[in-house]
Amino acid sequence: MSRLPTPATVADAPAASRPLLEAVNKQLGAVPNLFRLVSTSPAALEGYLGLSGALAKGTLPAPTRERIALAVAEANGCDYCLSAHSYLAKNLAKLDDAEIAANRLGHSNDPKADSAVAFAAKVVRERGHVSDDALRAVKLAGYDDAQVIEIVLHVGLNTWTNYINSVAATEIDFPVVTVGKAA
């Protein structure tokens, strides 16, 4: 059971959050618990959706964004986000089980994506204090300065969702995947 109340339906959410949740429903075909939880603060929901939407317009491919989310969720110990992003990685980004397993370990079976995922994992582990060598490696793999900034922002956004779900103990509404255990 969640440690913070989660509105049971869109209608139970604060009035200012309802249009935002309806947009989530239209896009995803459902309103996952994370969104309903965050809707308790309309400002937080607006900020989350705004940043998510802006990053979706960036230049990192959707599969790479999911790979980063998996690495961050595993590193931060968030079962909710690991479950959600395992589902999204498999069903939307079309990543296979071997790739998802590698992503959870901070790697990828795709050489270019491996650099982004490894860099993201280092950003989490080192709380942003990555070495010159780590930055140089991701850039040598073909990521430009804007993409490096996007990778760091994806780490930040995913860390925020990891933390809110961990603080709230959000009920997992995806097939459950547990940190530290093979999928």
TrEMBL record:
<feature type="domain" description="Carboxymuconolactone decarboxylase-like">
    <location>
        <begin position="42"/>
        <end position="117"/>
    </location>
</feature>
<dbReference type="GO" id="GO:0051920">
    <property type="term" value="F:peroxiredoxin activity"/>
</dbReference>
<keyword id="KW-0575">Peroxidase</keyword>
<dbReference type="Pfam" id="PF02627">
    <property type="entry name" value="CMD"/>
</dbReference>
<keyword id="KW-0560">Oxidoreductase</keyword>
<dbReference type="InterPro" id="IPR003779">
    <property type="entry name" value="CMD-like"/>
</dbReference>
<dbReference type="InterPro" id="IPR004675">
    <property type="entry name" value="AhpD_core"/>
</dbReference>
<dbReference type="InterPro" id="IPR029032">
    <property type="entry name" value="AhpD-like"/>
</dbReference>
<protein>
    <submittedName>
        <fullName>Alkylhydroperoxidase</fullName>
    </submittedName>
</protein>
